[in-house]
Design goal:
Length: about 500
């Protein structure tokens, strides 16, 4: 019988004390670089290797937690100026709060390290399945439990050919699985006794990307719905204001003029960003109705955002008003934590000064599609577009075109608008639907059904994007079964954890 050769781990000094700390801090920072404004193409396939090495340390949960905390503090530092500028919080307090967010989100990485180390130690081919599956389950769990499905591993490879159209089959969580799988395979390839596994696994990644690029969202396999029409995305570049003054209404007047000029084709849809008409409300302010009517009188429909007061409480809503005066309304279902709703509000009194109507919104339950020009618009307001299952639900209900209205002005010229845009691109590709994104200060964009950018307006730009959009009615695998990949990943984790446990108890 051939004797099995044990896998040789790296130098023990690398995985203890200062070595492990260096891997955790340096590795977390390296992973954060994958989510800067400009997407990288090749480094994401290697950037998780420091975290995988930490699975071999004596305290994998602790060091993985440090890795995750460093990643989040380095990836979303734009929270600090938001707290300072809009929450009137001193810098000396804003940074500890930001670090606290990193410590909390790092707990998902700690769980990855604690459980993943047990899977890793078993060696063999199974780690190629179990470790990526655990990562995928934790990304899904972060969205469900913490309402923060931000910066998924899939978003790091958004510029890699094939990754976006492949998500039409397996979703962004499936692409995340492939990213982690590839990192595991590369590490296996670098070690003599596991080289065969790595060499066998990496061609699988390449094949999936090739197949995804060829058939994942190929235009000739999509069935047009017919119809469609001209769309005008307005980016007024209006900064956030917490105080209403004369300049506020001058900017609304500028928005009205831009919209009327953008209505250069009868029947066109003019799309405003979130908060563009603030502080006016559609259900109570005739001034906002007059602004909208300046465009509808020219024969165009207007899709815009406004707060809606109801007996149940205020909703963050999207309205579509047609030249006939008919108005459809969609109410936001997934709210921003600590912005539109506040968990444990008594512990965070400063939130009241952080955002307009902070913590006052109610979450809607039903999905309302907005009909226009033979299409059905599925709307996501700002942060909502990061929830893949929510967008897929609107497509299942009949959405042929996707639209997202957002206000990223809170975060200035940082990586935040670009990180947000990556999520929108994956929603378009997952569901094979064109998506229009209106952002008040950028990045506004029109995205095709393969997740590719047709046109954009960058941060700080003012202008209008003009494009013709035609929706689609077919449903791809992901749109039909958005829970398929996290379910399979969860089963792999449960079986990998439970079967050995049952065997040990039986013995």
């Amino acid at each position: 019988m051939k004797k099995r050769t044990a896998e040789v781990p790296p130098n023990p000094r690398l995985l203890t004390g200062w070595g492990a700390l260096g891997l955790a801090v340096g590795g977390g920072w390296i992973w954060s670089l994958q989510f800067e404004a400009e997407a990288l193409r090749w480094s994401p396939w290697l950037a998780l290797i420091p975290l995988l090495l930490l699975l071999e340390s004596k305290r994998p949960g602790r060091w993985s937690w440090v890795y995750g905390a460093v990643f989040w503090v380095a990836a979303i530092p734009w929270i600090v100026p938001t707290l300072v500028d809009y929450g009137a919080i001193p810098v000396a307090l804003a940074w500890p709060l930001m670090i606290g967010v990193g410590f909390y989100l790092g707990s998902y990485w700690a769980l990855f390290g604690w459980v993943g180390a047990r899977f890793w130690q078993r060696g063999g081919w199974s780690r190629l399945l179990t470790v990526p599956s655990l990562w995928t389950v934790l990304e899904w769990l972060r969205g469900v439990v913490s309402d923060f499905p931000w910066n998924l591993a899939a978003y790091a490879v958004i510029e890699v050919p094939g990754s976006l159209p492949l998500s039409a089959w397996i979703g962004s969580l499936g692409v995340s699985w492939i990213v982690v799988f590839a990192n595991v395979a590369v590490l296996q390839l670098c070690r003599q006794n596991t080289r065969l596994r790595g060499a066998t696994a990496l061609p699988v990644v390449a094949l999936l990307l090739i197949l995804g690029g060829r058939w994942g969202g190929a235009e000739d396999r999509l069935v047009p719905s017919g119809g469609g029409g001209e769309v005008r995305v307005v980016q007024p570049n209006i900064p956030n204001r917490l105080v209403v003054d004369s300049l506020t209404f001058e900017e609304i007047e500028r928005l009205a003029s831009m919209s009327a000029e953008a209505c250069d084709a009868p029947g066109a849809l003019v799309v405003w960003p979130e908060s563009a008409g603030w502080p006016l409300q559609w259900d109570r302010d005739s001034a906002l109705r007059q602004v909208v009517e300046r465009t509808t009188r020219r024969g165009c429909s207007v899709l815009f955002n406004s707060t809606t007061d109801t007996e149940a409480g205020p909703y963050n809503s999207a309205y579509l008003v047609t030249p006939s005066g008919a108005a459809g309304r969609y109410d936001k279902r997934r709210l921003v934590p600590f912005g539109e709703y506040v968990p444990l509000r008594g512990l965070f009194p400063f939130i009241d000064s952080l955002a307009r109507n902070a913590g006052q919104y109610e979450a809607a339950e039903g999905i309302e599609l907005l009909p226009w020009a033979g299409e059905e618009i599925g709307t996501a307001i700002c942060f909502e577009v990061t929830f893949d299952s929510e967008v897929a639900a609107s497509v299942q209900q009949g959405a042929t075109v996707l639209a997202t209205l957002t206000n990223d002005a809170w975060y200035g010229d940082s990586s935040a608008p670009w990180q947000h845009l990556r999520a929108a691109r994956f929603r378009a590709a997952e569901n094979r639907r064109p998506l229009v994104r209106a952002a008040i200060t950028g990045v506004s964009a029109v995205i095709d059904g393969r997740g590719q950018l047709v046109d954009t307006l960058g941060v700080g730009e003012e202008g209008v994007i003009s494009v013709r959009v035609r929706g689609r009615r077919d449903l791809g695998l992901y749109s039909r079964l958005p829970a398929l990949i996290p379910t399979f990943a969860g089963l792999i984790v449960l079986l990998s954890w439970g079967v050995p446990l049952l065997r040990s108890r039986a013995d």
